Structures are given as C-alpha cells and as structure tokens.
Amino acid sequence: MTPSSSDRAAEESYDVVVIGGGPGGSTAATLVAMDGHRVLLLEKEMFPRFQIGESLLPVTIHGVCRLLGALPEIEKASFMPKRGGTFRWGASPEPWNFLFAYSPMLRGETSEAYQVERMKFDEILLRNASRQGVHVQEGVSVTGVIEEDGRVAGVRYTGADGAARTVRAAYVVDASGSRSSLYRAVGERHYSSFFQNLALFGYFEGGGRLPGPDRGNILCCAFDEGWFWYIPLSDTLTSVGAVVRREYAGGIQNDPEAAFRRFIDRCPMVRDLLKDAPRSRHEVYGRLRVRKDYSYSMSRFWRPGMVLVGDAACFIDPVFSTGVHLATYSGLLAARSINSYLAGDLDEDRSFAEFNDRYRREYRVFYEFLAAFYDMQADTGSYYWQAKKVSGMEGGELEAFASLVGGTTAEAGLLLNGASSQLVEAVARTGPAQTESGERMGALFGAPVVAEVMREMNQIQAGVLGNPHKQPPLLPSDLVPSPDHLRWAESAVVAARPAATVGSKEG
Q1: Which of 89, 188, 230, 482 could form a disulfide with 299 if both were Cys (CB 3.0 to 4.6 A apart)?
Q2: pTM, rounded to two decimals
Q3: Residues 292-309: tens digit of each pLDDT
Q4: Which keywords, in A-to-Z order, does the entry hold (predicted)?
C-alpha cells in the first residue's frame, strides 16, 4: 500500500529517538548528540514535573553531569550538599555514618553529592540536552514501535497537537520508566522474589536536621515493618518515605494518612525529627503518594534497533539511592554503544553486548549487596529483618563500601580528579565521620557474599584513573571507554580481570 501525501508529511527521520526525558533519557540523548548525531527526544509530560528519587551519588554529579556539560547549572541551583549517609539499621540502637570521602575515587572536590528536588534537577538535564542539540518535544505520547525485518526501526507517537506521527530512526532508546509498556518490544520483566515492597511518602516543612556536618545526609532508619528515608531537600523541606513489605498494602490503600502516622510512630528517630514539622501544603508536595517498589530486571536489555535504560530495564530497592545512578549510568553506556555502532567502529552485537553486560553487572552487584545488607542488618525481634549479626570489617572493605555506594565501581575514569587528594584533605572538606549523629562504620560486614563483592570492588578500583583508554578492561570483551567517554575502544591495557560476581537471589 502506497502511503498518502499526508502520511509522508507526518513521517520524520532521525538517527536516534529517545523516549522519556528523565535523567536516563536526557543523558543518552545528550551524549549521542555530542557525537554528531541527530536526536529526537519525546517526553509525555511538560517539565518541570514531579518525580521521586531525590538523593544522588557523587559519580552522577561529578562524573556524568560534568560529562554532559550540566554541572555549572547544577552547582548554581543551590541543592542541599550531602557528604554521605546516616543509618539506624539492625540490632544496634546507635546510628552510624559513612562518608563518600572514604573511597579513594571520591576524595577532594568529588567527596560530596546533592539532595535534589527532582522537578528542578531533571529540568536542568532536559534543557541542557536541548542546548547540546537534542530536539526535545514535550507533551507527546508514544503509542508503539515500528518493527521491520526483525528490528525496531522507529516509533509512532501522538504530538502535542493531537496529530498522529511516525518517526524512523537507526536506534530507539526506551527511557520511559517502569510504568510504560514499551519495554515489551524487547523482552519480559522478571520480578524479584526478595524485594517486593511499597513506598508511602510525603513532604514536611521545618523537620529536624542531623547535627553538624551531617545535616545534609540521607537518613535510613529501620523499624519493624520496614525502613524510612529522611532526605533534607532544603533548609525547610524534607522528603520522608516508609518502605514496607507488600503485605501492608491493604492498610496503606484503605487509609494512607493513618498508615503513615502509624509508621512514623513506630520509628522513634524519624518521629522525633518530625515532632514540630507539619506536612507541606505545596501544590506538588502537599499529598501522600504510594509507589510499588518491586525490584525487577528485564530478560533482555536490548534488541536490534532498540535499547532499554533506567527503570525501563531494571529497578532496585532504593536504600542506597541508586535510582538516578543506574538511570544515568545506563544512559551513558547506551550512548557509547549507539555511537560506536553508528560510526561503524563495532558491529551491533559486540557494541550492545558491552552495554548489556556492564549494566546487568552493575545491577546485580547492587542487588547482591542489598540482599546481604537486608539479611545481615537484622533485629532478632523483628519479623521484617532476617535475624543475623555481623562483624569484622577491614579498612579496605570500608573504602570499598564507600566506593560502591558512591557509584564509582565501574566508572572510575569519569572522576578525573578522584585520586589527587589525600583522605585527610577530603575529610577536612566534609567533616569527620564520628559526629553527634553517629559513629564511624565499624563492625558491619562478615558474610562471604559481602566479602566477595567487596573484593571485586577493590580489584576494579585498582585500575588507573585518568584516561579511560588506559584502564584495564572490566569485561572479557577487552573494550574500554574512549578518551572522550562517548564510544567504546579497544583496551590498551592487558590485565587480570576481576572475578565474576557472586550468585544472585534475583528472580
């Protein structure tokens, strides 16, 4: 059937189409455009728009956002700085702190991250994508993908004016999040049997702050039914959320306000911080929200012509604030693979196998670590935490922990200044770990699963910082990031590779 003139007029052509304007989509789109390709980004909502996931990691700020050219705008936004985190977790009643500065990769200016209002942060990245040459359309709805000869060749969408359109592209990036159904064009979603939680969250004005240099820390506080996040977004605004097991869904859905008050009363540390704090009346922040926090991973992260990034590919429990990290990291990996493929540097299978294996590895490392963390940080009187105490953490593991939760385990080369300062200088910048709000991390890890993950982290971070081309390859493919981080390149270093990650409870 020959297309009519109106059909042809409604059809567009780009090198790459990105679906979704969140951090993952903005990252992928920007880095592909920076390599000289024509990129269309389609976003369903009009920015700024609300999103959860407000606690960021240093590698996102000082690595990916610097690479995107967005760091100056982020620094001007006056987001709340965070130097690490504070945990009241498990059998011990005393909180403990970790500092990003304990990681050899995160010393000096990279030893802090930010707590951000996602409405502001995400818009900074999206507007930056536009400045970098991405054609951004908001208020449009992608209705399906075009498939031809076994590959994805574009998408169909409804424009802001209500007109149906078709856009063809050499590659499609699905960064549309967990609620979109577009991922079904790539594979099947497999849910974890271990992490099946609900998050009930809201915002408060005038909530208390941890003392001294810990005032910007994220607080993760366990109670019998689950755990709370407590994130200071500004001097007055605080994001507070309870993550609980799915068996509490009925009570939450019947009366979320009563359930939230009950959970707060069950967690004395959070209750005390909120004792004089009313709920926000802001038009966006003034209501409670419920989100299903079921961890999952796709059976495939890509197929010919289409790649999944961020929550479209996988989601992991948020206790270590990995959501935006995994989104931007996967956007970076996808951009490298797309750029390498379009330039003819690598064939499609090899280029996207590198994306798949690196991203799946990052997800599984966090998944395995979190499963052990939940298992081991147990209160023997709680039916939520599996009872088990741990002890005997060495100094090297402390550094590896800070590196892991700082997001540096696979992309040390993004932090070009990471090893230039000594620990004493970094701690002087952000403050000591032993403060009024908590002791330094001490006896924490001892189970074999954590020891094996930590050994792998140390091996990876023994690589050479600076030019990524001179780093040992992470995978048997012998590929490393190109010097400008925009493509894959053959490794210039022959080195022993880290051991494979441990078996997983995923599935």
Answers
A1: 188
A2: 0.85
A3: 878 899 999 999 999 999
A4: Monooxygenase, Oxidoreductase
